[in-house]
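Key idea: predict the complex, not the pieces.
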Amino acid sequence: MRTLRRLAIATVSLALATTVAACSGTGSGSAIGNGNGTGAPKGQKEQGGTVTMAWIAAAPNFIFPLAPATNTDGYNVNLTQPMWPYLVYNGDGGASAINPQESLYSSMVWSNGDKKITITLKPWKWSDGTPITSRDFTFVYNLLKVNYQNWVSYLPGQFPTDVTSVSAPNASTVVINLNHSYNPDFYEEDVLGFVPLLPQHAWDKTSMNGKVGNYDETAAGAKAVYAFLQKEGGDMTTFTTNPLWKVTDGPWTLSSFNTNGDYSYVPNKNYSGPDKPTLSQWVNTAFTTDTAALDAIRAGGSVDVGNLPLNDIQQASVLKSEGYSIASQPLPGVAAITPNLYNAQVGPMLRQLYVRQAMEYLINRQQIVAKVYQGYADPGNGPVPVQAFSQWASPLEKSGGPYPYDPAKAVSLLKAHGWKVVPGGTTTCQSPGTGASDCGAGITAGEALSFQLLYSSGQATMDEQEAAIQSSEAQAGIKIALKSEPFNTVVGQYGVCTASSHPASGCSWQLVDVGYDPYNLYPSGSSLFNTGGFNNNGGYSNPEEDSLINATEYGSSSQVFFQYEDYTAEQLPWLWLPLESNVWVYKSNLAGFAPLNPVSGGLNPEVWYYTK
Amino acid sequence: MTNYLLRRVGQAIAVVIGLLIVTFIMIHMIPGSAARSVLGVRATSGRIAIFNSTYGLNEPLYRQFLTYVDQVVHGNFGTSYQLQQPVSTLIAQRVPKDVVLVGISTVVALVIALPMGIYQAVRRDRPDDNLLTGVSFTLYSMPTFFFGLLLIAIFSVQLHIFPPEAPSATSLGGILADPRALVLPVLTLALVTLASFSRYMRSSAIEVLAQDYIRVARAKGLSRRLVLSRHVLRNSALPVVTLVGLSFPNIIAGAVISEEIYNYPGMGLLMYQASTSHDFPILLGCTLIIGVATVVGSLAADITYAILDPRVRYGRA
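Result:
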């Protein structure tokens, strides 16, 4: 679910329009900070007030926190998390870290070779005054144990199918036994970080008028309860009236909901957590485009918080003069071009590490950050974003990564492997074969280093970035033909190809760029770069890589993460690209908005307040 | 006339069925997987299987089509893959928005364009005609998105007279209850449409003014006002009637660009977004509705022709 939420945030961030109505205003984003330290409250704290937040193309449609497998609307997480937060609360102030104060547990102890977790819950209460207990966790587990295939957040082999037993020795203790050892960092941040607690005392029933029981304790009962809750969860007309959804444990309760994507919250007066809302209302309103949202901000009055598209960064000065503050927020993900290593035509070339190295050397990431993203982007030096996850970024990544922009090295790499390099023209293989100075297996004499790059259309920054790459690759005679299509069309084609399906006829794409892939709090490479990973669309397979990824997920060493990260950065299963940041506009008298947390998506309005 | 109408209704049904078949086949020829497209880059094979099974996409195409026809006959247009709501509900929410926006815009455009066209015809090639022609061409050649953004920049951002957003309500009453918010979107569409209507009206009126029956009317001593209102307006409005009839589907399909600019999600935007995300049920449902609207619009134009021009009597040799 966190992944979905970030996808929603990505939608907001990446759906950049090309035009804005009011083109007045000068200046640049040079005065924009990253949000750290910019939110220091000035003036006296004011109780109450309403914050209206603009979202782009937001249309949440499901309120039960365990959404069906076919429902991928990332905005559902935005809707539900303020009411039913996860057991592990990701994001602490400006840091990508677990927030111990907001999390629902007070301790999490690992034992039995990291196969057993003992969780102690805090003595918090549901909004109806009933204590939150371990039974609420077993309720969630029982529901998912028999319904996991119809849960949108289920990942093969992970929770709940990796659990051998769950017990509740007392009202505040949960004991989870796993079928193998896990890296605690991974499991706490990436697995338990998207499991909410649900009110068993109110939701364990199979019909609206039925009595609450312990139906979840049998498989048939759990299926019936799950089906009932999912049916109710999809009825958008009753989101604010259904008594089920009035029992919450988060800081907010839903006060209005409109099917057009507008909805609002009021504080949960019985919230047990430390940060009780100061605002009296939090309104979320949907906009068709970020241009429309920015127009509303500029017109004044109706929007207090929204996104500033990078194309309109010049508006920053004007917005500041109109009483807004601006802060950037790095995104938690990896942006890259995925090479199709088994494409029938160009796969043999892309399988050569030196070809991928040459291509990476030719991507001027610093220039793209400066010119395309106006400085608001992670440099993309490897698989871990150094801005959003500085604690997980290795010294190699922080120092610029293994392949800084260097066209001369790219040219010499290609020449050393038997290519006739024609800068500005077409580089061709002169020395076919498998020797150390030959082009490599499957590459024929005269074959050109020529590829098609498929990317998602509709964003000026993407167009500019791909054009820059096309231009810089040409310096070593690597020809890149650009082809843009709508995001979902690209995904529909690109996703068809998996490692096991190669070389199927559907694997016609050569290089693809779909924006970025979001991470959870622990930036694991699982599913992305491991053999057979369901998002390893290019078919990359390397036993050493698999071993390192396994060690980051299942081993106990925290040092192994840097080994994995550096190895992956060097091996280039993907060609690393800069990752643009989110830039937010918010009322200057709204305190607590910044510092922005990369993994919280700006959804911490319980700590926001107006100053007098 | 009755026979003609019956024949036209029969043709209309055949057209709609043909449209449905062609659209269904073409939609399923879109490259890529609908499940992948909707579930995203991190879709697992298990979730793809559930998706295909849920929406019957693992069935042969002919069976999918028959199932869909059966649903439509029973008033069910299916459920949107992306929005997870019944398509009929989505259409019912969006159509009133477009009916209000495009409907009011068309009426405003007609109210201005008809007299303007006649005035220009009467004042042909004089400075005021040339001025209005220039204005018409300027409006006609201006892209809707640019014109809309210009109006927002002036009237919302700079002068703060009108809001930059159209009404957010989904009901007809709710939309009409916020007339200030309708001003800019209506103005955007009306002025662009007005340019087109007035040009047609001017050309047609020039032709009518040269007709013998106009001379006769004048010779009989009819006042200039009566000649223009009774004879010229009625006869020169015929081409505009055709235009309005053909624009009827636009009332249903909406105006994508205006909807985007003014944060007014109607049918046009619904269809556009569905087309880029493999949301087959929405595409089929909207195509069907627009197909019906096109046929009805065309029929309405023919009937209006008959009313305006007594010489036109359909069904007679």
